[in-house]
Amino acid sequence: MRILGIESSCDESAVAYLEISRGRLLRLEHLVATQAIHAKYGGVVPEVAAREHSATLPLLLAGIAEKVTGKADGRLLGKRVDVVAATRGPGLVTSLKVGLDTGKTLAAAWNKKMIGVNHIEGHIYSNWLPGAALAGDLGGSGRGLFPALVLVVSGGHTELLLMKGHGRYRLLGATRDDAAGEAFDKSAKLMGLGYPGGPALSRLAADGDPAKYDLPRPMLRDPHDDFSFAGLKTAVRYFLRDNQERLTDPRFLADAAASIEQAIVDVLAAKTIRAAAANKVRTVLLAGGVAANRKLRARLRGDVAVRLPGVRFIEPPLKYCTDNAAMIAMAGYFQARMKKYGDWRTMDAEPQWELGRDL
Ligand code: KG4
Ligand code: ZN
């Protein structure tokens, strides 16, 4: 099966080509363009993002056509594609529409099958991309893997999902306010690290003492699967205000970053281990942009090994953690295997689409 993947839910425009035959990956090409323009606004401006997607996606499509066929010729690419998979939601509606409408137009023009992919499901399937532990597991039913607990941590989502099989999810809990990525980004912004500051805060934290400052760990021990990070953000704001004169001291900044990161990682890890034990899962999967955080990866790897004997921990390759279209194509492949095709005539963007809820 040959799949064209398209992603445009937020501020990354991305296109990928995926070829899988008899459970073996034969080819993966992918291109992603991050919209640098939002840094100067300190956050994503939806209209600007949509215009950037309109300008960029055709260029990326031509680039993928050139990689796959040797020519930047969409007609030739169409002859090599069986299924068009485009992100349908969740995300910014104006951004989603550009990629989804591009996908619908190609499916109509080429007369191909179409799949509207859930962006979060895409993140989950980054665990099946090259470089991941499940990369060889493309043909079977995933026996031995499920039930799996998935921790989804991105800029807009923080969720614990029970994955009962391919494409089968139950939402156990989610954040009641800010997402984990927002906790990173908003703290980073308060520290003057720009946008999106999660990776910069994490780099700074590498040289700091994570036990230096005691910040709140919201809902750490609560007996449910929900999260809340707004209180941490407020605590960080007051903490930095009270230490304003030290904001130019590199030692202080490193210790503050490490302490913030530790508070976020403590909550994510504790709640994940609790939910994994309660649901007697075989596997713990990590997904979403914040999965690129090395501290979180190492902590979950260690905690699963020590506290959940016999449970396997799977983490996505670093290069596929943040938004990309390879993961959308891979999620599309598993949907297509189950013949869960959509109809481009009626398909619309679903900005609020929650995984586990049928449309
Ligand atoms: O999944 P993603 O690319 O976009 C959304 O779907 O939201 O996630 C982006 C989020 C941002 O909040 C970004 O700061 C965060 O992932 N992120 C990180 C790291 N890399 C990306 N947060 C902490 N540490 C990192 N290394
Ligand atoms: Zn994402």
Question: SSE order, as H and E?
Answer: EEEHHEHEHEEEHHHHEHEH
Count of extended strands:
10
State the distance separating the first and last CA atoms.
25 Å
Oligomer: single chain
Number of domains: 2
State the secondary-structure class: alpha/beta
CA gyration radius, whole angstroms: 20 Å
- List bound small molecules: 5'-O-[(R)-(carboxyoxy)(hydroxy)phosphoryl]adenosine, zinc ion
Contiguous helical run count: 10
Question: Can you walk through the features of this model?
Answer:
The chain is an alpha/beta fold. The protein has two domains: 2-132 and 320-337, ATPase, nucleotide binding domain (Nucleotidyltransferase, domain 5, 2-Layer Sandwich), CATH 3.30.420.40; 148-315, 2-Layer Sandwich (Nucleotidyltransferase, domain 5). The chain is 40% helix and 19% strand. The protein has helices at residues 46-69, 74-79, 93-110, 119-125, 180-190, 198-205, 230-242, 250-278, 294-307, 326-337, and strands at residues 2-7, 12-21, 24-34, 83-89, 113-118, 148-153, 158-165, 168-174, 283-287, 312-314. Strands 3-2-1-4-5 form a five-stranded mixed β-sheet, sandwiched between helices. Strands 8-7-6-9-10 form a five-stranded mixed β-sheet, with helices on both faces. Helix 5 (180-190) packs antiparallel against helix 8. The radius of gyration is 20 Å and the shape is globular. The model has no long low-confidence stretch (mean pLDDT 96). It binds 5'-O-[(R)-(carboxyoxy)(hydroxy)phosphoryl]adenosine and zinc ion. The site of 5'-O-[(R)-(carboxyoxy)(hydroxy)phosphoryl]adenosine has 18 residues, from helix 5 and helix 6. Zinc ion binds next to helix 4.
